[in-house]
Every structure is written in C-alpha cells, then in structure tokens.
Amino acid sequence: RTRAWWRRSSTIAPSPAFTYYLMGGTTFRVAETPGATPELVNEGSMATSLIADEDNVYLFNNEGILVMPATGGAATLFQSASSGDLTPLAIDADNLYVMESGHSPAKEAWRYIVRMSKSGSERKRLVRRDDLSGYFLMFGERFLFNHPVIGYDSNVLADRILQGNFATPEDDQYIVRGPVGTASILAPSSVGLFFTDGNSITLAPYLD
Question: How far is residue 24 from each of residues 20, 28, 40, 108, 159, measured CA to CA in Å?
C-alpha cells in the first residue's frame, strides 16, 4: 500500500505503530494506543516536513532528506537537495515519492514528481507537474491531486480532482467520485482530504 499526503499535513506522518510529528524542527512520536505519551525521537535536524514507514523516518530540511531509525536516534543524509527543494508526497515498500521544485535561470518555476529508491540506487524524475497542488494520492501508475481552477460561471477559485498517469502523462482526467471520467466541479475550497480504493474517491470536506 502507498501512503500519501501533501503540504497541509506534511508535519505529521502516520506509520503502522506510531504517528510521527514535528514541533519546532524536533521529531516526536506517539503510539497508536489510547492514552499514549509522546516520545522525543530526534532533535537538531531542523526538519520542516517528514514521512515514515515501519522501519525509518525521513526528515526533510534545507540540506535535503535525512533518514533515521523509526525507534529514534541520529539522522544521516539520505538525499541532498542538489537541484531544488524537496517535499514528501508518498511512500511505499521500496520507494519515496517527492516533489522537487525550483526555478530556471529565467525565473520560470518548475515542479517534478521524483521517485527515490530506499536503497539509494535510483533517483528518477517521473513527470513534470508545474500545476501540482493540494492533496496528493498515489496508486499504481496513477496519481490524484485536488487541482484549483477558475469556475466556469465566475472568477471564484474552485477545486477539482485531477487524475494523472506516470506512464502516459497526456491522459489527465478530471474526476470527483465514481468511475474514472466522471467530471464535476466542486464548491470553492471544499476538498479537505480524499481517499481512494482505486475505483472510487471519497471526499472529506473542510470543517470550520
């Protein structure tokens, strides 16, 4: 299974046994049991975001990506931010998926979805997505994110779910719920989070 999220929750990283979170660049974890007490597992990394699996926690800071054991301790450099800023997107059994962003010499902004093997043997740009925004979710060769657009009948910014495909990037489709290809526009800023089983999408709206 691939777990994925986006900037709005990138300081919180769930794993099977613990939830990891950041406060002031310091990493804590709390067990997935009622009444559990938070534990400090790393300080000094000055991480701004993180992602975790059963074995390791990956901490993102200005240097790039650091990795430390899930039980805590010292963090070591996993990947340097040599060509742009790195933000966690997803994690599966073998790889991390990150957004690499930066600017060209002509000040043109760019964003790529990058796959990094946990072994460190591969770092590959899968697709350029300068429009990548909102919550991100991956399953197989497909990925979803909520994509702000201008409403058809007004200048109000609205959210739609965009499906992309690593293998055929030209096959983008706007979908919301139900079979792929069902197009709809949502109320302005309505998508707080979404989940999918590969066939349909469940939306969780913002709660004020």
Answer: 13, 11, 12, 31, 31
Asked if residues 61 and 48 have their Cβ atoms less than 8 Å apart, the reply is yes
Tell whether the model's pLDDT for residue 168 goes beyond 50.
Answer: yes
Point out which residues pair with 122 in neighbouring strands. none
Q: Judge contact between 185 and 177, C-beta under 8 A.
A: no
**What CA–CA distances, in Å, run from 37 to 34, 177, 204?**
9, 38, 28
Element (DSSP H or E) covering residue 48: none
* pLDDT, tens digit (0-9, with 9 covering 90-100), for 78-124: 998 877 789 898 888 899 999 898 888 888 888 888 999 999 888 99
Q: Which amino acid is at 130?
A: D
Q: Is residue 158 within 8 Å of 149, Cβ to Cβ?
A: yes
Is pTM, for the whole model, over 0.85?
Answer: no
